[in-house]
Amino acid sequence: MTASIEAGRAAVRRELTTYLAGVTGEIGSISGWTDDVIARLGDYAGRGKLIRGALVPFGESLFRGSHTPGSVDLGVAMELLQTFLLIHDDIMDDDDVRRGGPAVHVQFREESPDGRVNERYGISQGICVGDVAAFLALHRIATAQLDPSVRDSVHRIVGIEIVRVGLAQMQDVYHGWSPEASVESILDVYTFKTGRYTFSLPLMLGAIVAGQPEETITHLSELGEALGRIFQIRDDELGLYGDEENTGKPSGSDVRENKKTLLRTMFDLHCSESASYGHLFGKRDISAAELQQLRDHFDTCGARGAAEEIVQREASRCRDIIDAMSLSDEARGELLGVLSFNLSRTT
To answer: Model-level pTM?
Structure first.
């Protein structure tokens, strides 16, 4: 990552800790749950890469050369929204591991007051903690160090973007139950569940704080979509080929869950023998040897290469958008650095 993003990440990490400590007193003690939930959220969010949060002050610094406390506050809100979405996502995907540790609902599953490992209790409490994270994000926006008119713009854009994430998540869930998914439908999910939320939204927020015109906001919106599609395709590859010590998720989890990723769809489209491997998708106890056999076939049948063609197409679009923007040479280099990170990331 670029030096500006690292600086933003460090600032957001510090402010996240400060905010959670301060808001605990404002909430008040509720049967011991306040301290418990705030501690879990701090641990969970703190173990993340904080990319979304860091991109808000980074987005401001592209135009001002540095960031202000207001964009850091919004970065904290982005990380709390990310926490909310991931906690609920783990429940829907039945994922037990996140960021190298037990998912939040799994933590509660082991702590049921009836002394049993209780799935229903874990899910119920996990949903509640996710909800708390979402409302804390709204509180952080409402109390951010921003001019009221800027804060109003932020509320409006964040509200619409999170609605889009929810609708794209519904399509993703639908894919999980449907026998197949089209390339176009999967890319829609990648655009609105990942692209706009992970890149477009924080970059746009940073630019809004920096007082940038609508044309710049639109460029960043489109750039974020392309960056996000690359990010998610690389995420699919890491889910199949990655080292779980680096990714924090079990290798092959998408195969076990029978997720309709772009790689999976390309496999169906390009592999004449895909039907003979169909029984491995959704197999919860797939062996290491079976997983390796599947990886090898993804390579040899051209599925991975077909996905890479889309990655390179999106990379070219990113470069075109960056070229079209009115930016300093330094800012242009920073955005190209984000693209480079996406293309080569291993975590």
So the answer is: 0.91
